[in-house]
From TrEMBL:
The keyword NADP applies. Belongs to the aldo/keto reductase family. Keywords: NADP, Oxidoreductase. InterPro entries: AKR (IPR020471), Aldo/ket_reductase_CS (IPR018170), NAD(P)_OxRdtase_dom_sf (IPR036812), NADP_OxRdtase_dom (IPR023210). Pfam families: Aldo_ket_red (PF00248). Residues 16-257 form the NADP-dependent oxidoreductase domain. Gene3D superfamilies: NADP-dependent oxidoreductase domain (3.20.20.100). This is 2,5-diketo-D-gluconic acid reductase. PANTHER family: 2,5-DIKETO-D-GLUCONIC ACID REDUCTASE, NADP-DEPENDENT OXIDOREDUCTASE DOMAIN-CONTAINING PROTEIN. CDD domains: AKR_AKR5F1.
């Protein structure tokens, strides 16, 4: 497994398993169990996914050395404040059954992100978190957070795939030492990504599927990716992307697929922000 080195020296696997939208406890457990068994070492969950306890149960039952795993979770907007972040983090830690979390993110740029970030800085300095970061922050929000805080985010997890490539945002992250991480690396199946003709033609040259080409494209842009699957054969296929290299011409062709915006969610829509602000995950 290839790794990236974060801005604090921590090494992070470049490919991992996401468990978004797997709320069923048993299904989430099986997915993570299959992932670990087949070589996944980065597991990405969140308080809002409601499956931290399933992830934690697998970690305990698997018998794998904890130091060999890289576990990510995220603080939901309901707890986006200094005190809320302290409690939200502890709840995630308890749900996971762990002594520390490898990467902990502010899930959305909504609420008192500065207060929450100060709490994460303290937890990081206390050794409870190995690296802290953000999710869904645009470049301006990222710049604001970096400018007025002591610790710069190690990671920014954003929607990123062949149809929404974000070249300027990626360049900004790199310039600031922030590692880009892609959620929805398969665009949630939009634009027929699993049979997309250009990706298929490129994949045929290497004996790979369109989805493997889409993942390889991310890896060659030095992006961390966390594809989700509940099917073991797909989990294995997603991991089988380290034995080929896309050419410069391949990368240029894939760049033509960029439509320059999301068709999954619009973080600039006030109604979406209002929805997030009102979304409760606990009493």
């Amino acid at each position: 497994m290839d790794t990236v080195t974060l801005n604090n020296g921590v090494k992070m696997p470049q490919l991992g398993l996401g468990v978004f939208q797997i709320s069923d406890y048993d299904v989430a457990k099986q997915s993570v169990l299959d992932g670990i068994k087949n070589g996944y070492r980065l597991i990405d969950t969140a308080a809002a996914y409601r499956n931290e306890s399933a992830v934690g149960a697998v970690i305990q039952e698997s018998g794998i050395d904890r130091k060999k795993l890289f576990v990510t979770s995220k603080l939901w907007v309901q707890d986006m404040s200094y005190e809320g972040a302290k409690q939200g983090f502890q709840t995630s830690l308890d749900n996971l059954g762990l002594d520390y979390i490898d990467l902990y993110l502010l899930h959305q740029p909504v609420g008192d992100t500065f207060g929450a970030w100060r709490a994460l800085e303290e937890l990081y300095q206390a050794g409870k978190i190995r690296a802290i970061g953000v999710s869904n922050f645009d470049s301006a929000q990222l710049a604001n957070l970096i400018a007025f805080n002591e610790v710069a985010p190690a990671v920014n997890q954003v929607e990123l795939h062949v149809f929404n490539q974000k070249p300027e945002a990626i360049d900004y992250m790199r310039n600031k030492g922030v590692q880009p991480e892609a959620w929805a690396p398969f665009a949630e199946g939009k634009h027929h990504i699993f049979t997309q003709p250009l990706l298929k033609n490129i994949g045929d040259k290497y004996g790979k599927t369109p989805s493997q080409v889409a993942l390889r494209w991310l890896l060659q842009r030095h992006v961390v990716a966390i594809p989700k699957s509940t099917h073991e054969n797909r989990l294995i296929q997603n991991l089988d992307v380290f034995d080929f290299q896309l050419s410069a011409d391949d990368m240029k062709e894939i760049a033509t697929l960029d439509i320059g915006h999301s068709e999954i969610v619009n973080h600039q829509d006030p109604k979406f922000i209002e929805m997030l602000a009102g979304m409760k995950i606990h009493d």
